[in-house]
């Protein structure tokens, strides 16, 4: 005998009215309304008894709101500052890791066109020649108030050389007045062991005579070109040669006097 099949109620069938759940919902709602009413009444009574509390509560609320916003802004500013400091620290670390490249003057060319240079570039070129030939502590001191010292250096054998640069055209020779102004400061003011005047022109006869008397080395256009090419002596070597010749001349004169 086959048992009759039980019918399954449809899945989307609506649940019937539940009196117990409905009653519980309204009871909870009544409790919430009652509590809120009691709290509102207590606040109203407190305000009625002490009206100043209203001001205190308003100020406290505004202060809390402003403090919350300020904390948010401060937190944002702190995050930004931290990001900036982190970036600055990275850049500083990169700078420290990068080796510093010292300033170097350009190496003097074999035959530069000194006439095409500016006066400042001409002084730099003479300083580069001194560095090329082993001088140390080379300094370009030319400018207003230099008192004739355009380039100052220390020769390989430890002598202080002071150089005045005269960038003149061929038709403008260095005169005796130029030598006299330089001769008055090179030894007494600049404490030169060797004083040199370098020019792109030449020297007048009175200027050469004064230089010979004061012990100033004169380097004209041809001597400068020979110094640059390496075919001629350096100015401090020329000074040493002149000093030796002067010493031999003085010794010879004393021998003649004794005889």
From TrEMBL:
InterPro entries: Restrct_endonuc-II-like, Restrct_endonuc_IV_Mrr, tRNA_endonuc-like_dom_sf, Type_IV_Methyl-Rstrct_Enzyme. GO terms for molecular function: endonuclease activity. Residues 228-259 are annotated as: Disordered. Residues 237-259 have a biased composition (Low complexity). It comes from the Bacteria. Gene3D superfamilies: 3.40.1350.10. Keywords: Endonuclease, Hydrolase, Membrane, Nuclease, Transmembrane, Transmembrane helix. The keyword Nuclease applies. The chain crosses the membrane at residues 21-40, 52-70. Residues 115-227 form the Restriction endonuclease type IV Mrr domain. This is Restriction endonuclease.
């Amino acid at each position: 005998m086959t048992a009759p099949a039980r019918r399954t109620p449809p899945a989307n069938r609506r649940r019937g009215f539940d009196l117990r759940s409905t009653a519980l919902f309204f009871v909870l709602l009544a409790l919430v309304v009652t509590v809120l009413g009691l709290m509102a009444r207590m606040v109203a009574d407190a305000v009625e008894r002490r009206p100043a509390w209203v001001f205190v509560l308003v100020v406290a609320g505004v202060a809390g709101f402003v403090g919350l916003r300020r904390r948010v802004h401060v937190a944002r500013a702190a995050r930004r500052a931290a990001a900036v400091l982190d970036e600055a620290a990275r850049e500083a670390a990169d700078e420290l890791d990068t080796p510093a490249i010292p300033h170097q003057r350009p190496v003097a060319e074999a035959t530069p066109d000194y006439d095409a240079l500016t006066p400042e570039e001409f002084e730099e070129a003479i300083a580069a020649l001194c560095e090329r030939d082993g001088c140390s502590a080379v300094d370009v001191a030319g400018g207003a108030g230099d008192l004739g010292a355009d380039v100052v250096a220390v020769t390989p054998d430890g002598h202080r050389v002071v150089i005045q640069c005269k960038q003149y055209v061929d038709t403008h020779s260095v005169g005796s007045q130029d030598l006299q102004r330089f001769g008055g400061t090179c030894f007494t003011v600049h404490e030169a062991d060797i004083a040199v005047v370098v020019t792109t022109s030449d020297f007048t006869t009175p200027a050469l005579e004064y230089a010979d008397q004061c012990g100033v080395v004169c380097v004209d256009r041809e001597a400068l070109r020979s110094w640059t090419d390496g075919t001629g002596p350096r100015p401090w070597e020329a000074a040493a040669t002149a000093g030796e010749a002067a010493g031999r001349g003085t010794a010879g004169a004393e021998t003649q006097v004794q005889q």
